[in-house]
Specification:
mainly alpha, 283 residues
Length: 283
Amino acid sequence: MYLQKKRFAWFLVLTAVPLLIIAKDNLSTAILIAVFFFFISWIGSAPSKYLFWLCVVGLGTALLAYLLLLTLPGETLSKISNRAPTWKNRIVSDPALKEMTPAQRDSMMYVITDDNFQESHAKIAIARGGLFGVLPGNSIERDILPQAFSDYIYAIIIEEMGFIFGGVLIPLAYFILFFRLAQLAQRVNSRYEGMLLMGFGLLYLLQAMFNFIVASGIIVTGQTLPLISKGGTSYLITSLAFGILMSISRRISQENEKDADEPMIIVAEATKLNEQEPNIEGV
């Protein structure tokens, strides 16, 4: 029990310190890694009470950060992180809007500014797509929307392919990939390889979910869509990961073929031995 607590404490320290460093400049990536660590610990059969306290610590940290964003002035937040004022603007609404009546708010003209430019044009791209899209190559927002080839590629896919073929089938493909890797993880004898398969599948699924949420305008952050978004380093790391996954999958297939051939070999050897035995009745 003591050894287990010690390992958990080291896990928290070695995870929390890098996350705090990453969160200072890239909060979305830190949240993605934190969620990944939690689920991979749950998949790896970590003790429930430790996962519970991990949730308590995470929620407490998030609540504390939220209160600090609400109470601290912008200058103080800038000293903590250059991104902190941006985070505050995304969660705190304009005080002038609160003083308006519902009728005044409805009569206001929606103005696209530098702050909401990406979010607004992503929604326009999704709206233009409709159910069946404008067909590949006919997108207009790809020439207007910044980062259309990376962070907001999902919105462009929906614009060209529509909600049915782009909005549904693309997320479905990532879920199929995850469940396929989960099936392979159950067939391997090595726990390390099983966790490796589940880890890659979970990481790419979570990253894709973050990208879908961003393109839909629910939150504003920057996460690329695995296997689709443009990026040299992303292509390299993803190709390396899939090379490892395919190597494990091929070895599993070879082992299954070997197991399937063993009964046939045994039957063939038994038949050969029977043929070599002398016929006592004939003698």
